[in-house]
C-alpha cells in the first residue's frame, strides 16, 4: 500500500479582482483558485488577482479561469470585440483589456512563475509538492450558460454543445469553476444551478475533492459518500448516500437564522470568530478514496456589497511521490549485456560473410 502524506490545500474562488479582507494566517502546501479572478476581465484586475495569489503562503498556486475572465478565452474575447461599440477608442480598449493573449501572458511572467503561480488549461495535470506528495488534478473553466458574452461557457439546452468532462479515476482533486448539480449549487432564486453532466463525471471518477465556486450564496463544504453501485446516469437524487454524508459548513451554519436559539446564535458567533481569526474555514475530515468526495464551494464574493466569505483550508492525505532510481550496478550490467550481444552479432555476421565468400569462389 502506497504511503500517504498529510497535505494542506487552500481553496478560493470568485475574488473578482478584489483583495482578501482577512489575512490567511496558515501556511498551505498548495493553493487553488477556481476562477472568476476578475469582474470585467480587465488587465488591472488580473494584476490584482496575481498580487492576491503572491500573498498566499503556499509554494504552489494553481489557477483556472471563470466565466468573468473572458479575455482568457480567445473565442469569447473575439466575440466581445466584434460587438464593441465602434465609437469607443480602440487604443483605450487595448489598454484596458489588452489584445488576444495578453491576459494569458501575465501568468507567464518570470516573477509570477517564481511565485509558484501556475495557470491551468482544461485537462489533467500532475505535480510533486514540496512536502513529497504527488498531486493529480483535473481542471476545467467551463460553466453552463444560456447567455452570451461570457468566457468558457456552453449552452446546456443545446445537446450539440454539451460539455465533455474527461475526469480520470486517478485524479485527486477536480477543479472546476461551476458546481455539479445538486451539491452546494442552490441559488437565492431557489434553483439548482449546477451541471448534471459534471455531477455524473464526478460520481464516476470519485476524486478526493471537488472544488469550485460560481454560485456565491452556496458557499460551503460537504463530504459526500457515494452509493456502492452508481446509476447508469448518476444524479444527486440517486447516487449519494445521504445518511452517510455530512455537511461540514455552509452560510446557514455560520450566520444567525430566523429560528435560532440564543445558544445557537452564540455557537455560530464563536465559530465565525475562530475562522475569521485564522482567515479561513478549515476541515481535516477523513476522505476514503473511491468511496467519498469532499465538495467545496470556495466562492469569496458574498451576495451583499462588500461582503466576503472565507477561503477553505482542507487537510487531506495524498500519495507520496515514488522516485524510480536505476542503480549504477544495473546500468553497468545492462551495458555489458548489450556489448556482449553486439559482439556476438558481429561474429555471426563475419562468419556468414566468410562462408558466403568461400562458396562464391
From TrEMBL:
GO terms for molecular function: hydrolase activity. Residues 352-361 have a biased composition (Polar residues). It comes from Cercospora berteroae. The lineage of its organism: Eukaryota, Fungi, Dikarya, Ascomycota, Pezizomycotina. This is Calcineurin-like phosphoesterase domain-containing protein. Residues 325-361 are annotated as: Disordered. Gene3D superfamilies: 3.60.21.10. InterPro entries: Calcineurin-like_PHP (IPR004843), Metallo-depent_PP-like (IPR029052), UPF0046_metallophosphoest (IPR051693). Coiled coil: none annotated.
Amino acid at each position: 500500500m502506497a504511503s500517504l502524506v498529510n497535505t494542506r490545500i487552500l481553496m478560493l474562488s470568485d475574488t473578482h479582482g478584489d483583495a482578501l479582507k482577512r489575512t490567511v494566517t496558515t501556511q498551505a502546501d498548495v493553493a487553488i483558485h477556481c476562477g472568476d479572478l476578475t469582474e470585467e476581465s480587465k488587465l488591472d484586475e488580473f494584476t490584482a488577482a496575481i498580487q492576491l495569489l503572491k500573498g498566499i503562503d503556499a509554494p504552489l498556486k494553481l489557477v483556472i479561469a471563470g466565466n468573468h475572465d473572458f479575455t482568457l478565452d480567445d473565442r469569447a474575447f473575439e466575440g466581445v470585440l466584434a460587438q464593441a461599440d465602434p465609437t469607443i477608442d480602440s487604443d483605450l480598449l487595448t489598454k484596458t483589456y489588452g489584445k488576444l493573449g495578453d491576459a494569458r501572458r501575465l501568468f507567464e511572467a518570470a516573477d509570477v512563475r517564481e511565485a509558484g503561480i501556475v495557470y491551468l488549461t482544461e485537462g489533467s495535470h500532475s505535480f510533486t509538492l514540496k512536502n513529497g506528495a504527488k498531486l493529480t488534478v483535473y481542471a476545467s473553466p467551463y460553466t453552463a450558460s444560456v447567455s452570451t458574452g461570457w468566457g468558457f461557457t456552453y449552452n446546456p439546452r443545446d445537446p450539440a454543445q454539451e460539455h465533455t468532462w474527461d475526469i480520470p479515476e486517478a485524479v485527486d482533486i477536480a477543479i472546476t469553476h461551476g458546481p455539479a448539480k445538486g451539491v452546494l449549487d442552490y441559488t437565492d432564486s431557489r434553483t439548482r444551478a449546477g451541471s448534471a453532466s459534471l455531477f455524473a463525471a464526478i460520481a464516476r471518477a470519485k476524486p478526493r475533492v471537488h472544488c469550485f465556486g460560481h454560485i456565491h450564496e452556496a458557499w460551503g463544504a460537504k463530504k459526500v459518500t457515494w452509493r456502492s453501485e452508481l446509476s447508469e446516469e448518476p444524479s444527486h437524487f440517486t447516487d449519494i448516500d445521504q445518511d452517510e454524508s455530512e455537511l461540514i459548513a455552509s452560510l446557514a451554519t455560520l450566520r444567525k437564522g430566523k429560528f435560532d436559539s440564543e445558544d445557537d446564535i452564540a455557537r455560530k458567533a464563536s465559530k465565525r470568530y475562530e475562522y475569521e481569526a485564522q482567515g479561513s474555514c478549515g476541515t481535516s475530515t477523513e476522505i476514503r478514496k473511491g468511496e467519498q468526495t469532499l465538495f467545496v464551494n470556495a466562492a469569496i464574493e458574498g451576495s451583499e456589497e462588500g461582503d466576503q466569505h472565507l477561503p477553505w483550508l482542507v487537510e487531506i492525505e495524498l500519495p507520496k511521490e515514488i522516485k524510480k532510481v536505476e542503480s549504477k550496478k544495473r546500468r553497468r550490467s545492462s551495458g555489458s549485456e548489450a556489448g556482449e550481444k553486439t559482439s556476438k552479432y558481429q561474429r555471426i555476421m563475419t562468419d556468414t560473410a566468410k562462408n558466403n565468400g568461400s562458396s562464391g569462389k
